[in-house]
């Protein structure tokens, strides 16, 4: 059975969405190899990860996410935008629910921008500042706004789960080389960070407007990280910099989004709103993905959607340039 693949992106965090469960197409031991080739930007399709989505046919689905190195992850917030948008279109619905692990994610249709960019809003699971599996070894209770030399010699950091693990620093200047070095330290210091973590630097630009960039576990520096946005948004409120319900404009190198928190009892549930753009769709024989590539395919490109987003993001990039933020595209 051919693999039906749609390349999507949320803030240029490009994710391949595949119909069906991973084991519908590959034996369990082969999944990581196939994902690695699909994500390879020279030999495969090129992406920041893969979502497999088994549609239940009733507006709900089961989803599995894999990083480019083939490792499984509980969540890719930007990828959830693309996967959810495809289900919204298929069922002509205003909202759908995707299940992954023990979590359920509601994806709702949001306003289309003046540029013609389709947007969705994703209701994410509650953030957890005291996760059962510690992000920082031997940390007792929450780890909020603390110095930790193994992380960085001078930047304070907050640890939280969204539900995947994150380390967030609010900074007064942005240094990309410093972010890469910090993310690399976290990835290579398992005695301090036993489960690894995504690392985000957050630079306030104006009231209720910030720049965020994330060094992702298993992927490295990316143009945007949806769960990194949600984690960073929660940290801003935990540090008292903005009220939970206040929508905050989020600028990434890959695009612009908004995020806010929904208080429910003593927890916060983040909402991530932004583009969910289709790039192209294609079909490929699964056996091809167990070879060495390059992968050859014929597909349909969605140029109107690609061009509409390009116009929107050119405005975002201009704002970042005027703010003096120096970036390396990936």
Automatic annotation (TrEMBL):
MF GO annotations: diaminopimelate epimerase activity
Recorded catalytic activity of this chain's protein: (2S,6S)-2,6-diaminopimelate = meso-2,6-diaminopimelate
EC category name: isomerase
UniProt pathway annotation: Amino-acid biosynthesis; L-lysine biosynthesis via DAP pathway; DL-2,6-diaminopimelate from LL-2,6-diaminopimelate: step 1/1
Protein name: Diaminopimelate epimerase
Coiled-coil intervals, chain numbering: none
Subcellular location: Cytoplasm
Gene: dapF
Family annotation (HAMAP family): DAP_epimerase
Quaternary structure, from the entry: Homodimer.
Taxonomic lineage: Bacteria, Bacillati, Actinomycetota, Actinomycetes, Kitasatosporales
Family the entry assigns: Belongs to the diaminopimelate epimerase family.
Residue numbers marked as site, Could be important to modulate the pK values of the two catalytic cysteine residues: 166, 216
């Amino acid at each position: 059975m051919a693999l039906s693949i749609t390349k999507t992106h949320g803030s240029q965090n490009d994710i391949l969405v595949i119909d069906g469960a991973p084991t519908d197409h590959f034996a369990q031991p082969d999944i990581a190899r196939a994902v690695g080739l699909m994500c390879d930007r020279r030999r495969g399709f090129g992406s920041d990860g893969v979502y497999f989505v088994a549609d239940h046919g009733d507006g709900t689905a089961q989803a599995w996410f894999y990083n480019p190195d083939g490792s499984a992850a509980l969540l890719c917030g930007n990828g959830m935008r693309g996967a959810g948008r495809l289900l919204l279109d298929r069922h002509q619905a205003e909202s759908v629910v995707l299940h992954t692990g023990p979590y359920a994610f509601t994806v709702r249709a949001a306003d289309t921008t003046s540029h013609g960019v389709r947007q969705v809003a994703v209701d994410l699971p509650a953030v957890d500042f005291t996760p059962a599996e510690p992000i920082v070894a031997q940390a007792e209770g929450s780890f909020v706004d603390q110095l930790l030399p193994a992380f960085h010699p001078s930047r304070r950091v907050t640890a939280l789960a969204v539900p995947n693990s994150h380390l967030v620093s609010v900074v007064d200047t942005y240094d990309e080389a410093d972010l890469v070095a910090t993310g690399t330290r976290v990835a290579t210091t398992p005695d301090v960070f036993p489960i690894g973590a995504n690392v985000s630097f957050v630079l306030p630009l104006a009231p209720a407007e910030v720049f965020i960039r994330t060094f992702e576990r298993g992927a490295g520096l990316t143009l945007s990280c949806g769960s990194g946005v949600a984690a960073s948004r929660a940290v801003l409120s935990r540090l008292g910099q903005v009220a939970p319900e206040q929508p905050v404009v989020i600028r990434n190198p890959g695009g612009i989004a908004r995020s806010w928190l929904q208080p429910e009892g003593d927890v916060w549930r983040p909402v991530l709103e932004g583009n969910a753009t289709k790039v192209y769709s294609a079909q490929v024989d699964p056996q091809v993905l167990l070879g060495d590539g390059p992968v050859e395919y014929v597909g349909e490109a969605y140029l109107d959607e690609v061009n509409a987003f390009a116009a929107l993001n050119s405005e975002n990039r201009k704002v970042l340039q005027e703010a003096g933020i120096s970036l390396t595209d990936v």
